[in-house]
Amino acid sequence: MTDTPSNDLRLVVIDDDQIVLTLTSLMMRSIDKGAQISCFSKPAREINDILTLVANATQRTIIFLDINMPDMNGWEVLDVIASATSGKLPTNVRIYVLSSSINTADKLKAYSNPLVSGFFEKPLLQEDLRNLLFGEHVASMDRLWVENTERRKTDIR
Which of 71, 70, 80, 78 is nearest to 94 (CA)? Predict the structure, then answer.
């Protein structure tokens, strides 16, 4: 069964791993055959195209951004986007970190960035993508985890 979103949708995946690009695209197609999908594997070379997509987004746009990439890492991509947008994304654009990192520091860094709406560990599950598109996104649970972690650190000091 294919869900049908109530509005246009663009999925952008920025990752140097071709398998992740392919699997995420296929998963999205199984959920929404009409979604526009853009994949970028070399953000240093493609950063202008990424910035154009962000600046000209007319439909709901979800960006999945890997952290660990060789030519330009996800943190650097976020810095360039922040600079180009004066630190404020269009209201219809959301960036989610999609990473194999299980490092708490990476999650804390992601959630401390005002451009980041959530953090997903690879592999992205179809259920997580479906929830993100059609319901409460599970990444919000990560934000609660981060807040509780920060609170525990403060309590210990």
Answer: 78
What is the torsional sign of CA 79, 43, 85, 97?
negative
30, 1 Cβ separation under 8 angstroms: no
What is the full DSSP assignment across 127-151? HHHHHHHHS--THHHHHHHHHHHHH
Q: What is the pLDDT of residue 8?
A: 85
Among candidate residues 5, 6, 1, 20, the one with its CA nearest the CA of residue 98: 20
The class (CATH top level) of 9-156 is alpha beta
Tokens for 110, please give them.
Answer: 């992601």
- Its sign, for the CA torsion 45, 48, 54, 60, is negative
pTM for this prediction: 0.83
**Alpha helix (H) residue ranges in 32-138:** 43-55, 74-84, 104-112, 126-134
Residues in the chain where the model's pLDDT stays below 70: 1-7, 136-157
- pLDDT score at 87: 94
Angle at 89 between CA 50 and CA 47, to 5 degrees: 15
